[in-house]
Structure prediction request, 455 residues.
Amino acid sequence: MAAVAIVALPSCNEIEDGVTDIDSWPSPGGETEVYEPKTYNLSNHPCILHTRTDIDYVKAHLGREPWAGGYQKLLNSGFSNNVRKASPWEYLARLDANNWAEGGGRWKDAGLEEYYKPGIQNSYMDLARDAAAAYQLGLKWQLGGDTQAAQTAVKLLEDWASVNKGVLLGKIKWKDDVIDSNEYLMLFQIHHVANAAELLRDYNNWGASEGFRKVVDWLTGSWYPFAHSFLEKNVGDHWWMNWDLAAMTAIISVGILAEDNDMVNEAILRFKQSEGPGCLGGKGVIGVFEDPSGSGEMLAQGNEAGRDQGHNTLCAVLVGYFCQMAYNIGEDLFAFKDNRAVAFAQYVAKYNNPNGTDKPASADDAFFKYPESSLPFTTYTYSGNSMTKMGSAGRGEVRPGWDIWASYCKAHGITGKYVSEYAEKYRPDGGCGQYGTNSGGFDQIGFSTLMYYRE
Prediction:
C-alpha cells in the first residue's frame, strides 16, 4: 500500500525554481519583534468566521438590503441544495493532467497503480464542492432555521470524515512528501470545512456527538499535520504568499474548532513573525507607503503584486478571512503593525477597481478607476522572477470577501477608501460556485456582504 497523508495548498502550479533576494529585504517596519503565544478563549462557539452576535444581527436584517440580496444569493446557489449527497474519495489528489490523467506510466512508477480511477487527478474538486455546500447549508440553518439543510450538511461532513484518509502519496516525490506540487493546493478547502462544522455544532447537539468528533479528528489528524509540514518547509523563495495563507487559514480554523490553543498560536505567530511569505510582519509585505493620491491612507505592496492580480486579489481576501477568524477570538490582526493588513488590502483594491461593475476585458489602465502610476511599486525578485512593475494579468479579478475589510474599517474609524469602494461595487457578493466553476471559484468562502455588512 502506498503511504498516504493529508496536504493542500493554494492555486498555482507554474512555479519554477530560482534565485531570490528576498532574504535581503528589510522589514517594512524596520524593527524586529518577537511575539509570544497567548491563551485564547476558544469555547464561546460559534467563533471562527461568525459569532452568535453576527448571526443574530444578520437574522434581524434579512428583510432589508443589502442583506436580503446576499441571502437570496445564498438560497439561489446550487451548493445550498438540501438534497446534496457527498462524493468522498478514500485518497484525494490534485495532479497535473498532462502527467497523471491516465493510469499506467507515472502511476506505475509511483507505485500507485491500484489507486488509479478515472478522474482521481481532479478529485480535490469533489471536496471543494462538498465543503462549499456544507458551509452554505450551515448558513441556511443558522439564518433561517432550516433543519433539512443542517441534516444534509452534517451528513456531508460525516461522510467525508468516514471515508477520506488523506492525500495520495507514493514512491515518486516532487518535493519532500508529495508526488506533485499541486497537491498542496487542497488546503484552501479546509477552512470551509471547519467553518461549516462550527456553524452546525449546535444543531441537535451535534457538537457533542461521535460524528462531530470524527470530523474534528479527521481535520486535526490528517489536514493539520500536512498544513504544518508545508509551513515548516516554506521558508525560502519557492511558493508564493497565497500558498502560506491557505495553510494558515486551515490551521487557525481547525484550531478554533478543536479548541486547540497550540494550533491557533502557531497560525497567528506565522502571520506575525515567520520566515514564510504569509507573514504580514515580514516577507508577505515588500513595502509600506503613503498613498500618493493624497488620501492620507497607507498602502502596502504584497508578495504577489508583481506576479498577477488573480493571485494578488486572492491573497487580500484570504488575509481578510484570517484576520477575521483571529478577531473573533480576541486577536486584532487587522490592526497589527499600524493596520498593515488594511494597507495591504487597500493596495490591492485600488489597483483592481474598474470603472464599471463588470470585470474589464482588458487590463489596460483606461478600464480602471485608478491608474497604475497612482500606486508606488518597489522592484523585487521572488521565485526566480524579477518584478519591475505591477503584474497586470488578471487585473480586475472579482473575488468575494471585500465587505470584511469595509466593515472593519467602518467599525474602527478607518477611512478605508479603496476597500470600501471595491466592496460597494460588487455588493452583495455571493460564494463558491458563483465566481467560476474551476478551482479559482472555490478558493474563497464568500458571502461577506450577508455576514459582515453593518449599518
